[in-house]
Amino acid sequence: MGAGDGKAALRRARADPAATVIGVEPAWQQLVAVAGRARQRPERGGAPNLWFVAATAEEPPAELLGVVDEIHATMPWGSLLAGLVRPERRTLDGLAALAKPGAALRVLIATDAWREPVPHALRGLERPSPELVTNALACAYASAGWRITDARWLDTVETRAVESSWARRLTRGHAAPAVLRIDATRDG
Ligand SMILES: C[S@@+](CC[C@H](N)C(=O)[O-])C[C@H]1O[C@@H](n2cnc3c(N)ncnc32)[C@H](O)[C@@H]1O
């Protein structure tokens, strides 16, 4: 969810040809180059098991409702980030509508976004931390059908291993950003 340039989705699809991988991204123009590569034959780096969809978490496509085993929101920003940390019922419900019972949700948040100047969408929101997730967010997630199973900071090695063009951009020439990982399971 929030697939960005789609590179992480392409890598995942190539690594796991038996899986169907769907990258959802409202700013779909970013996906055009990778979508072209995915259409190549597998021996040329293509991935027939990869689909891209122009949509948002809040309004997921009807064709995907209730069929998803794993949802990854890696380095979300904008309304997706605000929806996950405020949290917004529309965002959590939209993700829950996609998920099969027992499906996994993994969110990786670069909390450096809370450094000044804080983006408009995040103003007034507390910088998320494992404590905030446990004390404040877990209840809202639970009422949308998401049971939080873990919330912790990634260490530097884990942060550098995150499959994300955005994470690579953030870490290039800098100290690794503080990344919060949230894991949740869809109650069924
Ligand atoms: C910082 S980029 C990260 C892209 C990619 N996951 C990565 O790690 O390289 C965040 C992405 O979230 C998308 N996004 C923002 N709001 C969204 C929403 N409500 N639903 C789905 N995606 C959203 C943006 O268009 C953007 O491409």
| Morphology call | globular
What is the CA-atom radius of gyration, in angstroms? Answer: 16 Å
Overall tally of structural domains? 2
- Largest sheet: spatial strand order: 3-4-6-5
The count of helical stretches stands at 7
The CATH class assignment of the largest domain is Alpha Beta
Number of strands: 6
Structural class: alpha/beta
Query: Can you tell me the CATH architecture of the largest domain?
Result: 3-Layer(aba) Sandwich
Order of helices and strands: HEHEEHHEHEHHE
Distance between the termini: 21 Å
Mean pLDDT: 95
Distinct compounds present? S-adenosylmethionine
Remind me, CATH topology of the largest domain?
Answer: Rossmann fold
Biggest sheet overview: 4 strands, mixed
CATH H-level homologous superfamily name of the largest domain: Vaccinia Virus protein VP39
Runs in which pLDDT lies below 50 for 5 or more consecutive residues are none
Strand content: 15-25%
Helix content: 25-40%
Entry summary:
The protein has helices at 7-15, 32-38, 78-85, 89-98, 130-143, 156-161, 165-171; strands at 21-24, 50-53, 68-74, 99-110, 146-153, 179-186. It has 188 residues and is α/β, with parallel strands linked by helices.
Description:
It contains 7 helices and 6 strands. It is α/β, with parallel strands linked by helices. It is globular, with a radius of gyration of 16 Å. Bound molecules: S-adenosylmethionine.
